[in-house]
Amino acid sequence: MRLTIVGCSGSFPGPESAASCYLVEAPFEGRTFRLLLDLGSGALGPLQDVIDLRDIDAISLSHLHADHCFDMSGLYVVRKYHPSGPPPKIPVYAPPGSDWQLSNAYGTTAPNGMTLPFEFHELADGLETTIGPFTLKARRTPHPVEAYAVRIEHEGSVLVYSGDTGPDDDLADFASGADVFLCEASFVESAENPPDLHLTGADAGRLATKAQSARLLLTHIPPWTDRAEVEADLLTTYTGDYTLVRSGDVVEL
Q1: Where in the numbering of this chain does the Metallo-beta-lactamase domain appear (predicted)?
Q2: Whole-structure pTM value
Q3: CA distances (Å), 101 to each of 44, 124, 229, in order?
Q4: Is the pLDDT of residue 109 over 80?
Q5: 48: CB partners within 8 A, 6+ apart
Q6: 114 — phi, psi (to 5°)?
Q7: Which residue spans within 155-253 are E strands per DSSP?
Q8: What is the pLDDT of residues 11-35, one digit of tens each?
């Protein structure tokens, strides 16, 4: 598998990165299969530096906050109105009701117009399904809206993406043995943080240590947050291999 960090800014796009969007690629039937994990605000622009938007094969949306899904509106335009003609529908794995909510966000004139270029499938706690060459498993996480972490497996390699989550010790079991644990770290320990919303670097480190992940990638750090403080928090609970990701980073699994 190859993981490309398209956007990693937390909560909204920053001057150096779009919001959450991660491209996962693997060989499949003589070509490259391309799965997007989230398509947040501002991500559609830099994504075009990496792939042709018509070459997306599937999408998984962790939840329906704008920084994880709102650029679906732009992709709707590409899939419906491209001069070369509309390509086949692509599957979108997302929380229940995503088709209607995304349709309303775009303002389609036809009821539930998002179903024209996309075929929606509901994520659910414990879901396991096959998407091209990947096995995708989903686990619900604590967050103000229905949200999911996903585990992507391919030929013995494992990538786990936390999505957005508050502290959740059981998430370590879901991430157990991951080659790469892509985990959010939006908060810092020095602040008074709301419950069940996001993780600190220390929280992420505890999860990765318990999961025995081979490599931890910290993401979803808001533009106003000091990355050095997030890293310092991480190092109080974690001694393994890690990176605070930046837009454009590529990781081979």
Answers
A1: 18-202
A2: 0.97
A3: 19, 17, 36
A4: no
A5: none
A6: -60, -20
A7: 157-161, 180-184, 215-219, 241-244, 250-252
A8: 999 999 999 999 999 999 999 999 9
Sequential DSSP letters for 121-176 = EE--TT-EEEETTEEEEEEEE-SSS-EEEEEEEETTEEEEE--S----TTHHHHTT
Amino acid at 181: F
pLDDT in tens, 65-98: 999 999 999 999 999 999 999 899 999 999 999 9
Q: How far apart are CA 47 and CA 37, in angstroms?
A: 12
SS3 81: helix
Choosing among 3.30.70.141, 3.30.420.40, 3.60.15.10, 3.40.50.300, the CATH entry for 2-250 is 3.60.15.10
pLDDT at 199: 98
Q: Tokens 């599957």 label which residue?
A: 91
